[in-house]
């Protein structure tokens, strides 16, 4: 039996997942609880929405769900806007079916009015939003909470196991794994979601916002009018929960049973779940994915997959939550700095600017193929993503430049970029979560990965042929 929203299970989870961002009280005359949807773009398995509904029921008011999109986020582009807007269209449909009041406001130009959330908050009893350490969301929430006159709660839905349970920065996957796995079964217990007891009066809904976007309209035309980077085009991947759930079903009914083997082949399109863009935007929850995987092949059968989905993903979250320097070299262990200093003067086989890297103009066809996969699809297969990241260390004058370039390329072009796993993955290339290995030129004692050796491990030539044939829109 799923837990009810009013159950002790949900109360205990929220005690771990929700935190106050300011010290204000609820506004006594508040007309509703506002859920400001920033990171978790779904209604299902959404702890912030659950929190908003519980608080609304306690206060005897309804819930309003607001999502906005500005042109000012870092690397704002057609690619990211399009993925968000197409999901919003589906959300609007689902909201109607479920009796939820959801609105989307698109701010097209940088100098357009930007205070929608402030206006909504001015009439709210409290504001609930998503707790998310990256993509500028934590900073935006802090700035908003400082000027908001009622209580602001931020609630985490990213992790299956609440990250508040792990108060310190974990050292490696092996230190987090046993702890997170011990809590997994309990954390995956299902919850029956419900709408708030008090309905939104029509008059209130109509009085709220004149600028709601008509999501049934021409979204490409809307995006064209936005003051964003139009040189990063949308990708073919279909956005939205329906598409994500279809992918989960396909993966769980197919490659999951042979994940350990098939995930190692970048030419196997279905060898891994390819869910990272959906997970990044919260269109599905990691819990949805884990429950489906366990239902399909059992917990033991899904162990290797759960290690990625839970241990590695939540290690990245722990890292970004517990280390404010997650985009900087400072986050690396001391041994990395020592070895990089010792090898700073080593001769590089080539040196490239970030623009050359971006245009896939290196001497190595396999690396160029990975970069082209990123440009064309917004992701790189996991195996090639490791080679892609590690190689940049070899081709830049300093490891500081290498990290800057990787963050820039990933944040700008990856549909799953700006995620905790983005910074966890990039930092891993530089030795984070790892140990020193044998000493080599340029690499020092950082674990090396040679593109040449990739040809012996999988059909690298096939991967090259596939992506180097892509016509680039640059
Ligand atoms: C240089 C570099 C950059 C990366 N950038 C990103 C990024 O921007 N966004 C991102 O989501 N992941 C990133 N990763 C981690 C990993 O490459 C992707 O999560 C994975 O390739 C996504 O493919 P998939 O959905 O088929 O994964 P699957 O193998 O099907 O795994 C399921 C899910 O588990 C999570 N996961 C899998 N591997 C990892 C990992 N090593 N670390 C953390 N989470 C993991 C992802 O959410 C993934 O969707 C990066 C890794 C490296 C080395």
**Low-confidence parts lasting 5 or more residues at pLDDT below 50?**
none
User: Can you list the strand order of the major beta sheet?
Assistant: 1-6-5-2-3-4
Query: What is the helix fraction of residues, given as a range?
Result: 40-55%
**3D shape:** globular
The CATH architecture of one domain: 3-Layer(aba) Sandwich
What fraction of residues sit in β-strands? 5-15%
Q: Return Rg in Å.
A: 23 Å
Structural class: alpha/beta
According to DSSP, the number of beta strands is 6
- List SSEs in N-to-C order: HEEHEHEHEHEHHHHHHHHHHHHHHHH
Number of helices: 21
Highest-level CATH class of one domain: Alpha Beta
CATH topology of one domain: Rossmann fold
Ligand kinds:
flavin-adenine dinucleotide
Distance between the termini: 53 Å
* Average predicted local confidence, pLDDT: 96
Q: What's the CATH H-level homologous superfamily of one domain?
A: HUPs
Give your account of this protein's structure.
The chain is an alpha/beta fold and 474 residues long. Among the domains are: 8-157 and 201-224, HUPs (Rossmann fold); 329-468, DNA Cyclobutane Dipyrimidine Photolyase, subunit A, domain 3 (Orthogonal Bundle). Helices cover 48% and strands 7% of the residues. It is built from 21 helices and six strands. The chain has helices at 8-17, 47-59, 78-98, 116-121, 137-147, 173-187, 202-208, 219-224, 241-252, 259-262, 276-280, 286-301, 303-322, 334-342, 354-358, 365-377, 382-394, 399-413, 420-429, 451-457, 460-468; strands spanning 18-20, 32-36, 63-69, 102-106, 124-130, 152-155. It has a six-stranded mixed sheet, with helices on both faces. Strand 2, helix 2 (47-59) and strand 3 form a beta-alpha-beta unit. The site of flavin-adenine dinucleotide has 29 residues, from helix 11, helix 13, helix 17 and helix 19.
């Amino acid at each position: 039996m799923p837990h009810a929203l009013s159950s002790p299970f949900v109360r205990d989870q929220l005690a771990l997942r929700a935190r106050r961002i300011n010290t204000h009280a609820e506004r006594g005359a508040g007309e509703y609880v506002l859920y400001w949807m920033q990171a978790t773009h779904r209604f299902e398995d959404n702890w912030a929405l659950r929190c908003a509904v519980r608080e609304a029921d306690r206060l005897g008011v309804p819930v309003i769900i607001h999502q906005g999109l500005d042109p000012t986020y870092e690397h704002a582009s057609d690619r990211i806007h399009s993925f968000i807007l197409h999901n919003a269209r589906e959300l609007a449909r689902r909201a109607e079916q479920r009796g939820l009041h959801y609105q989307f406001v698109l701010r097209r130009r940088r100098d357009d009015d930007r205070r929608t959330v402030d206006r909504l908050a001015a009439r709210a009893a409290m504001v609930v939003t998503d707790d998310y350490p990256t993509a500028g969301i934590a900073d935006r929430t802090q700035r908003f909470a400082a000027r908001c006159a009622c209580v602001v709660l931020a609630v985490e839905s990213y992790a299956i196991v609440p990250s508040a349970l792990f108060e310190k920065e974990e050292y490696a996957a092996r230190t987090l794994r046993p702890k997170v796995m011990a809590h997994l079964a309990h954390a995956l217990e299902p919850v029956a979601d419900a709408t708030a007891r008090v309905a939104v009066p029509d008059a209130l809904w109509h009085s709220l916002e004149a600028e709601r976007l008509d999501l049934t309209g021409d979204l490409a035309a809307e995006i064209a009018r936005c003051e964003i980077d139009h040189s990063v085009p949308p990708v073919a991947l279909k956005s939205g929960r329906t598409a994500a759930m279809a992918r989960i079903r396909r993966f769980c009914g197919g490659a999951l049973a042979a994940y350990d083997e098939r995930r190692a082949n970048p030419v196997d399109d279905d060898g891994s779940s390819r869910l990272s863009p959906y997970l990044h935007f919260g269109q599905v929850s990691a819990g949805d994915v884990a429950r489906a995987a366990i239902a399909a092949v059992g917990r033991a059968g899904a162990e290797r997959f759960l290690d990625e989905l839970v241990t590695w993903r939540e290690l990245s979250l722990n890292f970004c939550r517990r280390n404010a320097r997650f985009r900087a070299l400072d986050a690396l262990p001391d041994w990395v700095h020592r070895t990089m200093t010792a090898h700073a003067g080593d001769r590089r086989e080539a040196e490239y600017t970030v623009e050359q890297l971006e245009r896939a103009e290196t001497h190595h066809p396999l690396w160029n193929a990975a970069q082209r996969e990123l440009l064309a699809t917004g992701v790189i297969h996991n195996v090639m993503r490791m080679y892609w990241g590690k190689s940049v260390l070899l081709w830049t004058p300093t490891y500081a430049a290498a990290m800057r370039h990787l963050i820039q390329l990933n944040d700008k072009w990856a549909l799953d970029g700006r995620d905790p796993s983005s910074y966890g993955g990039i930092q891993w290339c530089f030795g984070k979560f790892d140990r020193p290995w044998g000493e080599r030129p340029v690499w020092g004692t950082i674990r090396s990965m040679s593109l040449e050796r990739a040809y012996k491990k999988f059909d690298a030539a096939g991967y090259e042929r596939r992506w180097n044939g892509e016509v680039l829109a640059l």
